[in-house]
Amino acid sequence: MKKTIQVTPTRSGLWQDTDVTYAQVPGWLGHATLDLKLTVMRPFEHANQALPVIFWFGGGGWMAVDHNVHLPNLVDFVRAGFVVVSVVYRNSNQAIWPAPLVDAKSAIRYMKAHAATYQIDPNRIVVMGESAGGHLASMVAVTNGLSQFDEGQYLDYTSEVQAAVPWYGVVNLLSAKQGSRTNDFDFVYRNILGADPETHADLVAQADPQHFVTATTVPFLLLHGTDDEVVPIEDSRQFYQCLTAKGVTADLIELEHAQHMDEQFMQPEIVTLIVDFLRRQLAI
Question: Record's InterPro entries (predicted)?
């Protein structure tokens, strides 16, 4: 069959830049160089317009990070007019805390330095992630302006962000370990801290976003499932109370019967909820 049809474009095509090296850090016990990567997705139709950007940090218990695994689920945010940047950060086999935080801030500075290339608005930055990546997103947001976590290149640019959206994120590492309904992941907290959280309160505090919250902390949208057996929902509830007690704009959305990494979080309803929140907070 030969046929000629007329197609009226109703949505933009998408660009994807995969495995962009944003930083180089010591690897293999300090005897080699480790390239840290990110992937950028952006729409065709806004090629001459600076867009708000969502930095995504995947989960994996700080044991393994695949920055491309969730890209199909993040396309909805690109369709909504955001650039999405999915970031690799060092896992606990490569470095202990605060290395992931240093990496996340390096990625943000890199993208700000290359804002024109990737058509991003450096003043409308969102951090979002799941589980361990949700914890990282929270820590990036609450440490705005704290220069001790900015290391490496592009230090003329800030790593400050304007909003955070952690999905079932770890909050306090000791509370997460003790409050979990399973013991299967107890070891991950020692691995990322480099010490047992029960006996190192100082290290736990350094990785607890509640420890850094102030009245100037950026807006938060917290998402958590009521049936999460890995990261206790009570920790997100406590974090929400901490934020609001300081006068921070914050919403907590509890997904009824949702478990850890549940597909409920990938539904259009949740995308719309997140996009609406970000448009309000970023004045888009």
Answer: AB_hydrolase_fold, BD-FAE-like_dom, GDXG_lipolytic_enzyme
Q: What are the tens digits of pLDDT across the range 205-234?
A: 999 999 999 999 999 999 999 999 999 999
Domain count, the chain: 1
| Residues paired with residue 123 on neighbouring β-strands, in sequence order | none
CATH number, domain containing residue 247:
3.40.50.1820
Question: Who's near 26: CB < 8 A, 6+ residues apart?
Answer: 32, 33, 34
Q: Report the first-to-last Cα separation within the chain, whole angstroms.
A: 47
**Assigned domain for 255 exists:** yes
Domain of 252, in residue numbers = 58-69+90-113+128-282
Torsion, Cα 210 214 218 222, to 10 degrees, reads 30
Q: Is position 236 within any domain?
A: yes
Quickly count: other Cβ atoms within 10 Å of residue 211's Cβ: 14
Residue-level pLDDT at 47: 67
Is pTM beyond 0.90? Reply is yes
Q: Which of 77, 101, 110, 104 is nearest to 88 (CA)?
A: 104
In the structure encoding, which two tokens stand for residue 177, read together?
A: 């370990």
> Contact at 8 Å (CB) between 129 and 225?
no
Q: What DSSP letter does each residue of 222-267 carry, written as one string? A: EEEETT-SSS-HHHHHHHHHHHHHTT--EEEEEETT--TT-GGGGS
Alpha-carbon distance of 93 to 199, in angstroms, equals 21
pLDDT digits (tens, 9 = 90+) for 19-30: 999 999 998 878
Q: What is the 3-state composition of the chain as percent helix, strand, coil, each rounded to the nearest 5?
A: 35, 25, 40
Calculate the dihedral angle through the C-alpha atoms of 50, 21, 220, 175, rounding to the nearest 10 degrees: 180
